[in-house]
Amino acid sequence: MRLSRYFLPVLKEDPKEAQIVSHRYMLRAGMIKQQSAGIYSWLPLGLRVLNRIQQIVNEEQIRAGHVPVLMPTLQSADLWRESGRYDAYGPEMLRIKDRHDREMLYGPTNEEMITDMFRAHVSSYKSLPLTLYQIQWKFRDEMRPRFGVMRGREFLMKDGYNFDLTKEDALHAYNRHMVSYLRTYERMGLTAIPMRADSGPIGGEDTHEFLVLAQTGESEVFYDARVTELKLGDRSVDYDNREEVKAVCDEFTTLYARTDETHDEGIFAEVPEEHRRVARGIEVGQIFYFGTKYSEAMGATVVSPEGKQIPVEMGSHGIGVSRLIGAIIEASHDDKGIIWPEGVTPFPVGIVNLKQGDAATDAACDALYKGLAAKGLEALYDDRDERAGAKFATMDLIGLPWRITVGPRGLANGVVEVTSRRTGLSEEMSAEAAIAKIAAIYENI
RNA sequence: CGGAGCGUAGCGCAGCCUGGUAGCGCACCUGCUUCGGGAGCAGGGGGUCGGAGGUUCGAAUCCUCUCGCUCCGACCA
């Protein structure tokens, strides 16, 4: 993408309403525009990141054997009366009436609707296990939206629901989600720690939240420092192998890690003092096992092998897709701007043309741009007629992990400059070598 | 929802107390110079001062109502 033809409205000054760094940088980097309290438009750069995150979430869900669907944002109140949550949910739920005075709501979550979908089409244990998920906009009418997309009212969320015959099967689904989530967050360059949590309005017995450590986090967290060193890495996990999946979950949940809701000073005191940590975290996902709470209330049953009608065992699982962008920025930035992990960056690399209009420099940038494209890498090429300082400042702000700088001085020696946004270190090399280097970096991402 | 604020050019702000021709910086446009870390000079465009009512010869400024937004707290993905 040529910057001269793009829509990237960066701001030089800090918008006054943005208090935390991710909100500030998202506004300054031209990623989002607030439309009303807690409701945002996504501008091209922000949309690219949002799409990248959705892509990773989709890939990991499908890898785990889960099946994508898409449900409407607007739901009928009747469905929610069946589960009893229409009255239980409170003013956080946005209620709407259509022209026929029918009561509707903008879904804050989808347990009822998915259960309705399930009961309409599944009637035998032979169809189980089944996990359906979607990535869809939700609305929760927060009393006080703040921190940009980290706590908006409208937000994009991946919500998944498992249907199983037995509790053991449902707990395997729970574990499978935990592993798939760990992999999902790692691909985004995040360390997200599963922590024992409270079930809140979803209800249920077993639940973990995934927390990204950040000073601006909304939750106080208590953990054993060794938990942050655990990595899934390249290991392949067979999602159908219960023991293997369970072993990974045990590995990641044995060390102490809890939010303030479930924190226990007594148990925490048993963690060796040098490993004990108290910090803050941003919640980027949560998994629940809740058994037959919704299936019983809504008559979602299957015929068992013994020929009996039994309510299905369920759980639900969420990833805060839009809020993840805020969390990633909170975890990865410096005083000049964002530093995107390669996995989620809007563009893999930026090209800075230091002398726009100079025939040799323009031609070199052009060749570089095409060479990268031939490797499947779409560069953001700053071809504006701006001074070097302005171009560097823009690149630093929007945080592309790699920058290739092309100027007459380097071209005279046959080199361009490749700079890492994260380390700030530069290397001079031929344009061909630069293309090869960037291509190698992104080969496995 | 309790408390505290703010709405003046795209963004950040001054002007309001003490009523009298709407300003500054950045951004934008034109020209010249400059050109490897947010350039300099000169010129220029852009506002029903959030909205409605009222007081007054006269309201951005005073009064009433209203809408929107932000911050602290409680609550929450």
Automatic annotation (TrEMBL):
Catalyzed reaction equations: tRNA(Pro) + L-proline + ATP = L-prolyl-tRNA(Pro) + AMP + diphosphate
Entry's EC annotation: 6.1.1.15
Record flagged with keyword ATP-binding: yes
Domain spans labelled Aminoacyl-transfer RNA synthetases class-II family profile: 38-341
Q: Which GO terms describe its biological process?
A: prolyl-tRNA aminoacylation
Pfam families given in the database record: HGTP_anticodon, tRNA-synt_2b
Q: Which UniProt keywords apply?
A: Aminoacyl-tRNA synthetase, ATP-binding, Cytoplasm, Ligase, Nucleotide-binding, Protein biosynthesis
- Where does the record say this protein resides? Cytoplasm
Asked whether the keyword Phosphoprotein is assigned, the reply is no
Q: Which GO terms describe its cellular component?
A: cytosol
Annotated GO molecular function terms are:
ATP binding; proline-tRNA ligase activity
Subunit composition?
Answer: Homodimer.
The record's family statement is: Belongs to the class-II aminoacyl-tRNA synthetase family. ProS type 2 subfamily.
Question: What does the UniProt function comment say about this protein?
Answer: Catalyzes the attachment of proline to tRNA(Pro) in a two-step reaction: proline is first activated by ATP to form Pro-AMP and then transferred to the acceptor end of tRNA(Pro).
**Name used for this protein in its record:** Proline--tRNA ligase
- Whichever gene encodes this chain, its name is proS
